[in-house]
Amino acid sequence: MKKGIHPENYRLVVFKDISNDYSFITKSTVESKETIQWEDGNEYPLVKLEISHTSHPFYTGKMKLVDTAGRVDKFRSRFKDRKEKQELLEKEKEEARQQAAEKEEAEKAERAEIKARKEKAKADKKAAAQARKEAKEAQAAAEQAKAEAAAAEGAAEEAAKAEAAPEAPAAENTEAAPEAPEAAQQENNEESSEDKA
Fold it and tell me: Going edge to edge, which strands form the sheet with 35-37?
């Protein structure tokens, strides 16, 4: 035999069919943590089987459900745990989606509120500008009315002066007329005093 190509743990192992407690011994390399004392008094590694040639339906002609190790229960429990984990993951994902949707709704509402505040501020600013413009226009109209009233008053005064002015020259003429004879009389007096001299 060639050296170094065969497994070192090739030894006698006891195989036990746990469905009918039938055991047999043969050589194998299978690993096992359990041991059993065989009929010859020696201790050998033990490998438990769920089915063997003594319990297989082909050899016995009987159908038999072999679940002594609880494989079906293990399968169910394993997949139950997996199903529960899957459901838990789905629940977490759904919660995350709901939180994201709530956050998005909150952000959307906040954006709408900010937009409404900006629009309100813009409208208030526009209304204030319009009010200032109207106040300026009203003030300008008041000043124009005041100026027109002053102009009308000035025109009325000038008209009153104009009416009084034609009467004043006539009165001056009448006053100037008496002065003329006096001036003429004075000249005559002066001339007569010069003649005397």
Answer: 22-28, 11-17, 43-49, 35-37
Q: What's the mean pLDDT in 174-195?
A: 58
Q: Which helix (H) or strand (E) holds 188?
A: helix 71-196
60 within 8 A of 19, measured Cβ to Cβ: no
If DSSP codes are grouped into helix, strand and coil, which group holds residue 37? strand
- Burial zone of 20 (CB within 10 Å; 0-12 exposed, 13-18 middle, 19+ buried): middle
pLDDT reading at 193 higher than 70:
no
Mean pLDDT, all residues of the chain: 81
> What is the Cα–Cα distance from 27 to 11, expressed in whole angstroms?
5
In terms of phi and psi (left: phi > 0; alpha: psi -120 to 50; beta: otherwise), the region of 46 is beta
Output the six-digit token pair for 31.
């690993």
Q: Which of 69, 6, 10, 70 is nearest to 45 (CA)?
A: 10
Amino acid occupying residue 89: L
pLDDT tier for residue 164 given thresholds of 50, 70 and 90: confident
Q: How far apart are the first and last CA of the chain?
A: 198
- DSSP-assigned letter for residue 3: T
CB burial class (10 A; 0-12, 13-18, 19+) of residue 13?
buried
3-state secondary structure of 61: coil
Contact in structure between 17 and 23 (CB atoms under 8 Å): yes
